[in-house]
Structures are given as C-alpha cells and as structure tokens.
Batch of 3 targets.
Target 1
Amino acid sequence: QWYQRRVREDESGLAHNGGVMALSYNAAGTQLITASADKTVKQWDIETRKCVSTQNMGKDIADQQLGCLWAGDFVVSLSLSGEINYIDLNSNSVTKVLRGHQKSIETMEVKSGKIYTSSFEGRSSIYDAESGEVNYFTGATHKGKILDTKISGDTLVSVDISNKVLRTPLSSCEMGTDSSSVPSNVTFFDVHSGSGTEIYCCDMALVMFKDGNEVYTNELKYNPNGCTISPCGTVLAVGSKEDPKLYLYDIEGNSIVQRQEIDLTAATTELKFSPDGKLLGAATVGRTILLLDVEKSYKTVQHCWSTSSKSISCSFSPDSRYFAIAGIDTNIVVGDATKPMDPSIKILRAHPLGTITRVRWLDEKTIVSTGSDMQVRQHTLSV
C-alpha cells in the first residue's frame, strides 16, 4: 500500500522533519493530509506521491500537530496547545482557530461584553460573549496558578501562586509591563477603581496598594479568606477562614481601621457588596447563603435559599436585584433580593463535569460561570 512506503517530498528530504502523528484521506481517496510534530500540515496527491501544499502552524512546541481530519474543502487539525485549526485548502490558509483553556479555570471577571478568564497553568484569555471568539493575553504572563483577578477601570489586576501581581491594560491585553509582589500567600483581593485601591487577603494580614504601590499592612489575629470593598470605597468587609465571623473596616486614606466584628452562621469563601451598596452577600463553606442589610447595621436578611454543599463564588446582578451563588455541587442558585422569601431559581448541573469556580453577571438577566471542567457557560434567566 502507498501509505506503507516511505514518502519523500523531493529527492533530498523526508515527507516531514518530525514524527507523523495523524493522517486523513479525502472523500474520493485521491489525496490525504498529514499532521506532524514538525508543526506542519501537508496535503499529498496519492497518485504522484508528491506534496501539494504545506501549512506551517507556528514555531513553538505547542504548535506541534497531533491530529487532522478532512472535512470537505476544509482540513481541521489539532495543535499540542489544544487549539483546533480550520485550514482552507483552496487558499492554503488558516481561516479560524478555536481556543480555550486546557486546565481548570480559576478566576473570571466580566466587562463590556468581554469575559476575562484565568486558569490553573497561568493562562489568561478573553472571550467575546456574543461571538464566542477567544484570544489569549500576551507578553510576560503568569507562570503558575492564578489565584484571583479583578477589573479596576480599564485594567485587569491578577495575582498568582508566587504572589506576583500583574496589572494589564484591557486595551492591549499585554501582560508584564506593570508588576509587583505581595509579601505572603493571597487567597482573595478586591479593588476600588475610583481610588486606585487594592486590598489583598494574605497570611494573617491585609495588605493595601494604592496606584500600584504598597502603602499599608494590617497584621491580623485571624486568617482572612475573602474581602470586598464597598462601592463608595470607604468600607472593607473581610471573612475569616477558620471562624464564622465578619470583620468590617473603615478605609481611611492609606490605612485600614477595624470598626466592627459580626458573628455569622458559617465561615465565608467569597463576599460581595451589591452595586448599590445596600446589601452584602457571601458564599460559605456550608449550605448557608448569607445576605446582610448594610443600612440596618448588617442585620441578616431572612430568606429561604440554600445550596446542597460548599459554595465558592457569589455575585449580584448589575441592578442589585438578583444574587447568584455557585460551588461544589455544580448548581447555580439565584435569589431575588427584593423578594427574599420567594423560592430561589436553580440552574441544576450548570457544570456537570466539575466544580463551579466563578459566577458573574453579563447583564441583568445573563449569568456567566466557569469551572474546573475548563468551560465558560452563559445562562439566561427566564423571569
């Protein structure tokens, strides 16, 4: 058979300069394509045993080609990076590339129809919520697991497992031009766009940055696990990792002053103020969903919502009406804050293959979620 013999592109060279990882015939059986570790996809004529065209897929190791499939006038190839490439044989060009994360998505934020995600291996991506098109951040990206991200104005602030902080302009999405580091391990952090404030939950401490510079460290007697800054930028709410307590602080210039300690029914994971600043919500390590009335001295709002296991992420809708919570049980629970005693809306098995790591709102009726299943999903409420 033809494919059992060594094929040469010419008298001096082999068909590929690397291992041939896959091949696929056209429907007529007159031509085939090969995908190779030499980062090329080649089209061959079976009768003449000559190369018809060569598509170079890149220069990086991740551009090695592991698979291919002939589909009409198009060829689909699979890169080592996980990208799926559509090659038009008529123009001998790559017309479309499907991208995505290859590891668990750890963080996610949303702004102006764009979804900004970061994953376990340090990759950051931009999803277009309408078209689904995905692009990667460039430059000196993170080299390890990204722990948390926030958007401050037109800047994405991110911190990784090595305590490195990057501030990346959303206009260019090129990382590494503005970086700093925090003194110890970070669990969560929050930002306030108007004042340039960033506050990080570190080991037994809160660390404040202003305009990219560290200005204050507050040593604590507990281990903080989540924090959120009020919309006005003057109040900081912090949860404890071990104890069911909430700590409230006043942000005064370049300092943080504790003013109140509140007992809760469960330790928190992520905390969020509502956009109008009237409510404080929290995901917890138990089945409890916390909702506090800020204007009534953080009195608990009675409701009938709950989860079936530990929740990891929470978020208010832009109009402050709905509160979404998600976590280990793969479900998303949505409560109406204006009608807290009404039953919650449940999106069951929103990520059936893994834990939900983040939940955010694209608009007043659309929820975006990410998970350890490497997926980004959108859910529209029918209310």
Note: The two ends are 63 Å apart (CA to CA).
Target 2
Amino acid sequence: TLLISFLAYLLLYQKKKDYRRKMQDRLSDDEIRDLLIDWKENGRVPLSADRDTLMNGAGDVADIEKKTKRSPMEDVIIERMSGSKVDISMGVGKNSSSRPRSPSSKRTVLNFATHDFLGSACPAKKDVSTDVDVIKEAAIEALSKYGCGSCGPRGFYGTIDAHLDLEDEMAKFTNTDGAILYSDGASCSSSTVASFAKRGDLLIVDEGVYEALGTGVTLSRANVKYFKHNDMNDLRRVLERVQATDESLGRKLNDQRRFIVVEALYKNYGTVCPLDELVKLKEEFCYRLILDESISFGTMGKTGRGALEHFGLKPMQHAEIICIGLENAMGSIGGITVGNEEVVDHQRLSGAGYCFSASLPPFLATASKANLKRLETQPEVLGSLKENIAFFYKTLNSISAKGTTLIPNKLVVTSDEGLSPMVYLQLADQALTREEQIELLDLIALKCLEDGVFIVSTGNHVNHHLHKIPPPMLRLTIMAKQNKTDICTAITVLKDAVVSAMKGR
C-alpha cells in the first residue's frame, strides 16, 4: 500500500511539475502579437531558401517575383595566392551584362578580397622568412605523420594528439581554463550556442549576427529577442522589457538560462561591438555572454587576442563563452570555443558539431598551432596589419577630401575606421532599389578587377539564415602582406571605377 501511494504521489507530482514548466514556457501576449504580425507580413519562409530569393531594402524576405541576375564576379576562379597578389582565371560569363571572356584567361591582381588578414596562407614567391617556412614545414610534417583525414568524430576515434596540443596552446594564449576544437568555424559557433541554450531558455541577440550564429540561435529552439545592431540603448530597452515581464509573472532570475549573443567584429558589417558598454548591461541584468571573436582574433588587441583585449576585458570574467574561427587571421580551417572547464566539458557531449562531425585534419591543427606561435613571438606581423588598416582609411579620406573624386558623394564608409580590417562601402544614394544597387556595385567590382584589383560586391552573397539582411556593399579587406603602394593603387583604381560606373548618374 505504501509503495502504491508513493508511486501515485510521484506521478501526480511529476504532472504538476510538467504543468508548471509548460506555464513558464508559455509565450507572453506581446510575443504572440509579434509572431502574428510577422506571419501576416512575411508568410511562411521556405524550408530551403533559394539563392534567387529577393530581399527588400528593409531586410525582410520578399516574394519571389523575379530572378536575381547572376553576378559576373561568380566567374572568377582563384588559382593561387602569393603575398598581396592572387592569380585568377575568368570563366565564360552567362550574364548578358558582362562581356564574353575566355575560360583560359589568367591574370595576377592585387588581393583585397581575402580574410587571411595576417597573410599566413599566402606567402610571396620571394618570401624566405622563417615564419612562412615554419608553418609550411609543420603542416607537411604532420601530413606525413598522420595522413590527411582523422577518420572519425572527436568523441570516438577522431581525436589525435595534434588536436589536444592546439587546444592546450589556445587555452594558454587566451588565458582560459580550457578549449574545445571543432572541424570548422561555422559548426563551432552554431554548435556552441545550441549546446548551451535549449527550449525555454532566453537569447538576446544582435540583429546583425552572421549566418553561423544565426543558425545556432535557430537550432537552440530557445526564446529569442533581437536588439538593433550595435545599439546599446535598444539592448537596454529589451532587457528592461524582459525584466518587467519577470516581475509581472513572479519569475526568478534563475528560473531560466539567459544569454546575450554578439560578434566582437561583425563579419557582414565591419563594425565593432561596444563590449565595454555591453558588459555593464550584462552584469546589471545578470546575463551570460556568448561572444564570437572569429574576425577580431588576430586583428584586434595589443597582442592580437581580440576585442576583449582591445577593451581591457577578460575572458571567463566578462565573457563566459568565446568562439574563435581559425579560418581568418589564423589562415587555416576550424573553430575553437574557450572558457572555463564547465564550458568546455559540457560541449564534449552536447556540441553537435563536435560529437557527430569528422574531426579537423591533424595537419590543419598543426598549422594553426604554428600560426598561433607566430602571432605570439612575432608581434611585428600584427603591427604591419594595424599600420595598413590605419593607412588605408587615412588615404581614402584624404583623397576623398581633395574634391577631385565623386566618392564622397557616391560611397559611404560604414565599417569602423581604424579598427576593422574589412572596409565596407555603401552607396550614398538609397533611392535606388536593391537590385539596382547590386547591379551598380557589381559593375564597380568588375571594373576594379579589370584594372588589377580584386574586391568583393556583397549584394548577391548568402542572404538566408540571417535575421537582418545587410544592404549591398563593396568590401575590401586589408592584410599584413600589402604595402603602401598596393593600398594607394587599390584606392586609385576604386576611385576610377566609381567615376566610370556612375558617370551620368
């Protein structure tokens, strides 16, 4: 009798507990209203986003009424990178607006399109410096020792000492308790977010986060609230609104796991997150911070440790979870999340990309380790990058100030000057439709390529998995391998291309 009574009690208690949990997870009236408004305005989003899906100027998914023109820049084939230059070939363009080209036409142009900011993966032909030899030889040695692939996920038989060595070195370099290595940067960011946030949790997300973080937010199935890009006043408004809801429902702070999700340096905008202000809000309202340092690592801070170092903040203390992509300044492939022991150990069983994806090839982990040592022992490489960034913005502004170009009236710099190695230029004339802006920027990028400078027009880039679609822009990336002559040439070519493309407008 006692056993039956005890079982009945457990059953009733569990039902009551499940009911309380369901009540806590219920959407508020404001959330329901926002979802209904979004449904009425946008309808149902396709399960698989078409590359020809059009985006309107406000950044919302528009109806598929006509096909996006194929960009002529899609015909560019990268053959080889060497220092500040890149060897390319041009395929036959199918776009009627582009001139016919020979598939075998090969040329060498200045490279202002790479994300290899430190030039680790593009040694010059005449470069015989030891840092290039060390990275290359380390990768060759690892390839000879381990072979190419690792033949399995990290949690089964895919973990090799090269992976563990890189994790240890990264933890030491970032002054954290531990690190966990993923096979690519995208799965690192998306798996990290989804491993910590689950259904019923709350994510406060910057609307400008890039695709990988956006995917992680979606996979988490947590409650999500967005704030305006880099707007700390709007972030405070969102946090205060959540706080007011808590008070009305009698909900305690520890009833729900809560995170703020941002990029340190935004991939699609080139803007730097004001982490000093954001950390104050995080601590005031008791949130944890998930910070993506994929672009800022190796480009910002006195020693290249990223935006946290730039703002005088500390990992684990001011940012609990930090994602770092190895595919930018590190010149390799992969991603690493650093933090305390709990943050790292939790992902070894909960990080989908860690548990189910084949691990990073050991020679790439070894190359990343050698590159990390280079960043630590050769600070002049980072110094060259920062000098080039400052010189580029200064030269661009000085040439524009002379009044001899149309750039001040036609293009606007939207990236953070002096900090971002990615220079974003947006059309000043916002009266044009999105399609007209894309066509014009594609033409400018193509003219630059014809004159020997490779830059990127972003209008036809991936637009799905983003909460906010960025406007069409031109993107030029600065790297340590460039010199002042390269930068002056690029700016002059850009000026001439803008004048030519916008003649009569």
Note: Residues 43 and 500 are 41 Å apart (CA to CA).
Target 3
Amino acid sequence: MSGSPATVTVFSIVSDPEFGEECQFIDDCLQKRLWHEATEAILELTQKPSIRNSGAVYRIFTEVLGQPVQNINPLSYARLAAGAALQAPSKDDANALLSAAAEKVKDEAEAVVFVRLQSAQLALENGDDTACKQTVTECEESLGALSCAGSDVVLAQLHRVRAAMAKASSDASTFYKQSLLYLAYQGAQSLPPDVQASIAFDIALAALCSNEIYQFGELLLHPIMPILEGRKEHWLLALVKAFNAGDISAFEKAKSTHSREFAEQPALSNNDTILGEKIRIFALLELLRDRGASSRNVAVADIAKRCELPEDQVEFVLMRALSLGLCAGNIDQVNQAFDCKSVQPRVLEHESVGRLAEQISAWSDKVQQVAHVLQDCAPELVTASS
C-alpha cells in the first residue's frame, strides 16, 4: 500500500451503486492513510457474493493496494492476496501473485503459511496432488514451530485445504472431520449463504457415505445445516434425519420421493446397498438405546422387525455393529437373543431429548411404585429412614 492516494479508486473498479457507500469509505480511508480501517473494509467488501464473482478483488489488490506493504497487517495482506488469486486471469498469474505476496510477508510466519496454503489449493485444482500435499505438510510444520497454535483464520485455511484434499481423494470420513474443523475456526455465519449451502450439502453427503460415522446428532445440531431447509437440497437433510432416527421407512420414502436427485449423486446411487446396511445399524442402535438398562436382552425377532430384515440376517448387522465398537454384548444363538452390555450414546438433538424425557418419566414412575410398595409393606422402615 503506497503512501500517496491511489490513482485508481475502489469506487471506480466496483462501479456498483449498491456498494457505493462502502467503496467511498475505503477510498477516503486510503487517502487519509487509515490503513487498518481500509484493509478491514476491503476484506468485508470482498466477501460480498457479487464482488467475489465479478473479478473486482483481483483489480483492487493489484491496482489499488499497490506494491509497498509496510503499513498493512501482513495476515490481512495475505488474505487479500488469496482472494485475488482466485480471480486471476490465468493459473500462471495466480501463482505469480501468490509467490510475490509470500515474499512480501516473509517475515510473518502465519501470513506466509496462509499464502502457501492458497498455493496448495491451486495445485490441487490443477491436479498436482503431490505438490499440494507437500506444501500442506510444510505449512503444518511451520505452524508447529510457532509458540502459539496459530490464529483462527490460518487454522481455518489449513482445514479448508485439508478438506479439499480429502474430497479430491473421495475420503468421506476425513472430509467430514476436516470440514467441521474448518467451520469451527471460520464460523459458518461468516460465510455467504451459497457457500454455506454448498458446504452443508457436501458434509451431509460425506456423513452418509462414510463407513466410520454412525452419529449424526452433532451434524444436525450444527448451525450450518438449517441453510438446506427451503432449498432444492432439502431432500438430503431429510435423508440425514432419517438415518439419525434409524427410521428405515422415512429413508425409503425420501429416496423414492427424490429418486432423480438421489440418482444424480453417484456417491449415493453407487452405494445404495451400503446405505441400506448402514441405516439398519442406525435402527439397531436406536432400538438398543430406547431399551432401559434392565431390558437390553433383545430378541432376534425384535431386532429383525425394527431393522426390517429376515431373522437369519440379523447376526450380520449385530456383528458389524460389534466390530465397529458401536455396541458391546453377546449373541445368544441358543435363545435367539442379543444381550447388550453397552451402546454408543447418542448426541441429544431435540427429538432425542424428548425420548429421553419419556424414559426419565417412566423411570420416575417406577421409583414411585417401589416407594409405595415399601411403604405398604414396611411403613415403620420407611418412616425411620425418612
């Protein structure tokens, strides 16, 4: 950022009356050398969807900010450089811009890491997975060498790139975990609605397809998920809710009602059988959770009914759940029952809280019944203990 007013103004680049006031404020700050205020205002402006998609970010960075960067926060400069690289005319221009930016902020480790992570993202998009992975590894080492863990904005960038790597390699479990970490540092509400919807859709898809994730309560409680309500992607949210409740009928209904959308997602349509097996494990877990601690010796016939399976296929579902560590217990083949010792606890979303309240109410009623029996049979004992 130069010490004299820029010859090209933000107002002249954007040329959109909707943002005229914001652009004029930025230009005034630049003239008055209010670098911090100008930078923050530019960062906020460049998050607007219409600005992000117009090419204005690249021009603001290259034509308005100028060459010297002594008066601008290095990390803010790195963030602007990353945004500008996304709108560069060519891949070569983007790489050149990021290389120059990294050199200018070379004395600030976090700023360098942020720029290099954007370079890793570009490498991934260009099909160079090896370069991307190597850059991410080096960035992790640089962050590990810092006295602190790193600022939220840098860690968000790191997990965003990690999630992109996982998506490119079709690693649903890693994508799910890294995306949630990205949102934890980034903050879902700071993202434009279209970006939120895209991330929410991909996370939900990953949760369904992962062979490691058998708990959707955390996902359904995440503030980014309601963005799918009222959108064309709402059908996927219905699938996730069906899985979370272990509701096979709701799953089949949603799949049938939105058969076209389901077929358009290869991750779902190509794994239809696996999804059928997975939701039956969810159904088994819900059955076990809904049983009281004193009634977890479950007949195979009850499991077959809940999971909508022939009885001779119940053992496969039980063995799968046991192998994943989702429950513990013994299969009694003589008495055709499963003696459940423990089951993975559910994350209590709203519907689960309601079911838990019913269980607590039933337990309270039993306690009251026992108290009445004791009082009737041995009133003097009850009186003495009270």
Note: Residues 1-6 have pLDDT under 50 and may be disordered.
